[in-house]
Amino acid sequence: MPHKEENPSVAVERALSMLEMVAQEPEGMSNAEISRKLQIPKSSASYILRTLEKQNYLNRDEETGKYRVGLKILSLSRGALSGIDVREVALPIMRNLMEKTNLTCHLAILDGPEAVYIEKVEPQGFIRMDTWVGRRMRVHATSVGKALVAHIPQEKVEKILAERSMERRTPKTITSASRLFKELEKVRSLGYAVDDEENNLGARCLGAPVFNQKGEIEASLGLSGTIHQVNAQTMPRILEALKDAARHLSMQLGYRVPRRTSAGS
What we know:
- By secondary structure, the protein is an alpha+beta fold.
- The protein folds into two domains: about 10-75, Arc Repressor Mutant, subunit A, CATH 1.10.10; about 85-250, 2-Layer Sandwich (Beta-Lactamase).
- It has nine helices and eight strands.
- The chain has helices at about 10-25, 30-40, 40-55, 70-80, 85-100, 145-150, 155-165, 175-190, 235-250; strands spanning about 60, 65-70, 105-110, 115-120, 135-140, 195, 205-210, 215-225.
């Protein structure tokens, strides 16, 4: 039986939702899982999935039947990211920071209500962070997210929280707006943010803000490791390296630290 023609706008929305959903699952997703989560008929999901597979936006594993993001998505992301100069400036700074700390280094920006990784540099070794360029994250549960929203107007943060619920990722996740705003005050005061197993148990991450020539938040630099790698003994050294790298990157983007005026001047 031929597939019933769908409303074009509905089909496009469903296709984009599928791509976003599959992109968040490294192990892939089956037709049944996708149709159930999006609450659409399997036949409609199958039709769209076959089209995306035919165009190489998705790949289907013959053994498991699960869909994963195809390589064609990378060409789109490269085109989108090519206009973001901060990546090119940040990369050598990130490599240096990774070598100093032996931790995975991320560069993130705020895109709508979420933090998005736009660059990643990781050290050699068997400890690997389950992160990737293009990964989208809730701002309340990540160090890079907190570092970003700590430096935007509170009404914008409130809008983000209204649009994206404060999902409890682990028992340590901040789930109340009042507690988050207190945390953001602390971030502004200290110059860095901490994700202490709030997004993933066993992982501790640090984030620092990056400013542009207008003094506005441009991005955030993050370091991710295990709770054994980032502990009370190593934290001061790691934070010093992170804040120095973020300050260096900000200056490369044209940011100038405001001069302190002496009393009575």
